[in-house]
């Protein structure tokens, strides 16, 4: 009898992944969106969404995970975002069950959702979540498709307080995918890297209608009015830019732009409001 | 040829040639770029041609040449001062001090202080702090020796870099992104008033160095040698340190560290022109200016619209050339 119970417990998918440790904010969001929040035993110090995640034990960060803390939490499953610190190999070496995912693009997020849902024994919930996100994105995409496209650039970084070192989201980046759906025409779609540093010369030549600037956001969150004014002052150096002329330089700071995950439709909606404020999103 | 005595005619000929090279580069590079510019429209002030030429391209060329010239001179100076052929503007930790200042500004979220970006001020303060620590460690009373300067410089450098790495490790993702970008260094289109301010700091320092070039000749041969020939060595050491640090600190605050140039331009010129500082200092300025302007032109056009860190270009363009020069020179020695 006991033996049967043991075999059952091994086979039962419900038993799998009772204590899950997440090693990136995106994974944490996926776990909670799948309704697995009560099984999450540990998150990273950057996991701020949803609120419940803030109260969970911290295992360090994506690039600097504490192996000992992870072991201390006695997880049945550690979900690792593909990273350069070889965390998966290190965890497998101490015989932990590891699932590696790579939610760095829209496709990657859907694949991660499916893999995580399967590993946690709730594959149906994964399909439902992905389906819900797809249909939401389709609706938004159709809405944007009826509108004229807006020339846009999204700056993910620069030297704070200056216009030096402008890093744009270019072709192949997650942000470029979202902007595209929201009706944006990325002016740096042809750049040779996903996040290139771009020259002022090319920015002036390509003349975006909208500039979305996340450059100063040393901590993502809220932008104060004072900070907003300071960013506009920086950009006022180039009054010939259409974005400046039409007052469409938007300083932003929002986790949803930097964490590929289940909130991607919300991010697209935020972009939609910036690119096409004339329609309701 | 390289060791021939410095006659007024030779001085004029060599500097004339260097100046001509520099002028040629400054005349040509503003016309090279990735964006299409109609120069007639640009001169008529028509957007965006005028802005691309005068606000994006020209300031970059000017900043690159000013920075290149300044770093090359700082390289000559530190090599003479420390009597170490591997010395460069960054040997004494001035630039890592500047980097630490900038990194602190990024981590603490300082952005602007009115008209000057806080990060530049923090970098300048960091450079000054590093210099004070190095000089404090290396001096004994009023005297300071090259050897202890070199040792304390290298040590302070290591400590400061360790602190930067520590900060980068505890910084948020966005912060560490900004830190890495800053540490790569690079030339950007800054405003003309920034270039003017930098020139105003550098000009008197460069004039002083050219004026004191004879003393640096004696100093490079050895401190005692210089002292017996009437050079006030202690005073010269201090003023040289101050001059080199002013150059390195102010340049690094704006561009971040740009490697290789401060080492290679002085050596290339020494191989070609000999070690007389009366020629070497001004020649380094002109050739350094031309070299960085060329490197930056490649950096901003080769992979456009993307920008390559200019430090990558200085090493990739300058390195092979320098090796060739070295090889050529060796051949002459041995044959």
What topology does this entry show?
The complex is a heterodimer of chains A (281) and B (335).
Chain A: H1 2-11, E1 20-22, H2 25-33, E2 40-42, H3 51-54, H4 67-72, E3 77-81, H5 87-93, E4 98-101, H6 106-119, H7 123-145, E5 150-157, E6 167-168, H8 174-181, E7 184-186, H9 200-206, E8 210-213, H10 225-235, H11 242-245, E9 249-251, H12 255-258, H13 264-275
Parallel strand pairs in A: 1-2, 1-3, 3-4, 5-7, 5-8, 8-9
Antiparallel strand pairs in A: 5-6
Helix pairs in contact in A: 2-6, 6-7, 7-13
Chain B: H1 8-28, H2 39-43, H3 49-82, H4 94-108, E1 112-113, E2 116-117, H5 118-138, E3 139-140, E4 143-144, H6 146-170, H7 173-184, H8 192-211, H9 213-221, H10 223-228, H11 233-255, H12 261-273, H13 277-301, H14 310-334
Antiparallel strand pairs in B: 1-2, 3-4
Helix pairs in contact in B: 1-13, 3-8, 3-9, 3-11, 3-12, 3-13, 4-5, 4-6, 4-7, 4-11, 5-6, 5-11, 8-11, 8-13, 9-13, 12-13, 12-14, 13-14
What does this molecule look like?
The complex is a heterodimer of chains A (281) and B (335). Chain A is α/β, with parallel strands linked by helices. Chain A has 2 domains: 9-123, Nitrogenase molybdenum iron protein domain (Rossmann fold); 146-275, 3-Layer(aba) Sandwich (Rossmann fold), CATH 3.40.50.1980. Chain A is 42% helix and 12% strand. Chain A has helices at residues 2-11, 25-33, 51-54, 67-72, 87-93, 106-119, 123-145, 174-181, 200-206, 225-235, 242-245, 255-258, 264-275, and strands at residues 20-22, 40-42, 77-81, 98-101, 150-157, 167-168, 184-186, 210-213, 249-251. In chain A, strand 3 (77-81), helix 5 and strand 4 (98-101) form a beta-alpha-beta unit. In chain A, helix 2 (25-33) crosses helix 6 (106-119) and helix 7 runs parallel beside helix 13 (264-275). Chain B has 335 residues and is mostly helical. Chain B has one domain (8-334): ABC transporter involved in vitamin B12 uptake, BtuC (Orthogonal Bundle), CATH 1.10.3470. Chain B has helices spanning 8-28, 39-43, 49-82, 94-108, 118-138, 146-170, 173-184, 192-211, 213-221, 223-228, 233-255, 261-273, 277-301, 310-334, and strands spanning 112-113, 116-117, 139-140, 143-144. In chain B, strands 1-2 form a two-stranded antiparallel sheet. Chain B is globular, with a radius of gyration of 20 Å. The A-B interface holds A 46, 62, 64, 156-165, 167, 170, 188, 190-193, 196-207, 214, 216-220, 227, 230, 237-238, 240, 258 and B 33-36, 47-48, 51-52, 55-57, 60, 105-107, 109-112, 117-120, 169, 172-175, 177-178, 181-182, 186, 188-191, 300, 303-307, 309.
């Amino acid at each position: 009898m006991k033996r049967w119970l043991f075999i059952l417990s091994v086979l039962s998918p419900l038993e799998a992944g009772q204590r899950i440790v997440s090693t990136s904010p995106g994974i944490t969001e996926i776990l909670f969106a799948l309704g697995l929040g009560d099984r999450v035993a540990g998150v990273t110090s950057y996991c701020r969404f949803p609120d419940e995640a803030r109260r969970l034990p911290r295992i360090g960060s994506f690039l600097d995970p504490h192996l000992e803390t992870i072991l201390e939490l006695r997880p049945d499953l550690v979900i690792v975002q593909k990273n350069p610190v070889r965390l998966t190999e290190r965890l497998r070496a101490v015989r932990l069950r590891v699932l590696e995912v790579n939610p760095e693009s829209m496709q990657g997020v859907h694949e991660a959702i499916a893999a995580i849902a399967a590993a946690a024994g709730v594959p149906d919930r994964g399909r439902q979540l992905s389906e819900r996100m797809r249909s939401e994105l389709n609706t938004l995409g159709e809405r944007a498709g009826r509108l004229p496209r807006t020339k846009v650039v999204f700056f993910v970084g620069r030297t704070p307080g200056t216009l030096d070192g402008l890093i744009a989201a270019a072709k192949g980046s997650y942000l470029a995918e979202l902007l595209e759906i929201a009706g944006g025409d990325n002016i740096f779609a042809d750049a040779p890297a996903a996040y290139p540093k771009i020259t002022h010369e090319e920015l002036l030549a390509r003349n975006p209608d909208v500039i979305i600037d996340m450059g100063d956001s040393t901590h993502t969150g809220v932008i104060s009015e004072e900070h907003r004014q300071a960013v506009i002052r920086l950009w006022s150096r180039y009054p010939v830019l259409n974005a400046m002329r039409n007052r469409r330089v938007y300083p932003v700071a929002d986790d949803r732009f930097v964490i590929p995950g289940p909130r991607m439709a919300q991010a697209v909606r935020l972009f939609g409001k910036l690119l096409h404020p004339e329609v309701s999103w | 040829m390289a060791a021939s005595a410095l006659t007024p005619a030779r001085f004029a000929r060599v500097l004339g040639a260097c100046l001509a090279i520099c002028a040629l580069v400054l005349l040509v590079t503003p016309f090279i770029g990735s964006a299409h510019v109609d120069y007639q429209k640009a001169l008529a002030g028509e957007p965006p041609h005028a802005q691309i030429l005068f606000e994006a391209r020209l300031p970059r060329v000017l900043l690159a040449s000013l920075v290149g010239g300044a770093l090359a001179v700082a390289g000559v100076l530190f090599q003479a001062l420390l009597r170490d052929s591997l010395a460069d503007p960054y040997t004494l930790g001035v630039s890592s001090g500047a980097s630490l200042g900038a990194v602190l500004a990024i981590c603490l979220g300082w952005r602007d202080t009115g008209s000057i970006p806080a990060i530049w001020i923090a970098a300048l303060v960091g450079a000054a702090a590093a210099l004070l620590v190095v000089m404090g460690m290396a001096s004994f009373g009023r005297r300071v020796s090259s050897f202890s300067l070199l040792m304390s410089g290298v040590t302070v450098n290591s400590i400061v870099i360790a602190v930067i790495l520590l900060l980068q490790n505890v910084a948020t993702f966005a912060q560490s992104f900004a830190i890495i970008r800053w540490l790569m260094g690079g030339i950007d289109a800054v405003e003309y008033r920034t270039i003017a301010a930098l020139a105003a700091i550098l000009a008197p320092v460069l004039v002083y160095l050219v004026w004191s070039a004879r003393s640096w000749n004696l100093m490079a041969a050895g401190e005692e040698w210089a002292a017996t020939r009437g050079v006030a060595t202690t005073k010269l050491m201090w003023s040289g340190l101050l001059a080199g640090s002013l150059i390195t600190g102010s340049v690094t605050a704006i561009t971040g560290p740009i490697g290789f140039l401060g080492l290679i331009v002085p050596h290339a010129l020494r191989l070609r022109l000999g070690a007389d500082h009366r020629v070497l200092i001004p020649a380094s300025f002109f050739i350094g200016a031309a070299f960085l302007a060329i490197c930056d032109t490649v950096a901003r056009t080769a992979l456009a619209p993307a920008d390559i860190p200019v430090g990558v270009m200085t090493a990739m363009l300058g390195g092979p050339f320098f090796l060739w020069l070295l090889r050529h020179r060796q051949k002459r020695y041995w044959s």
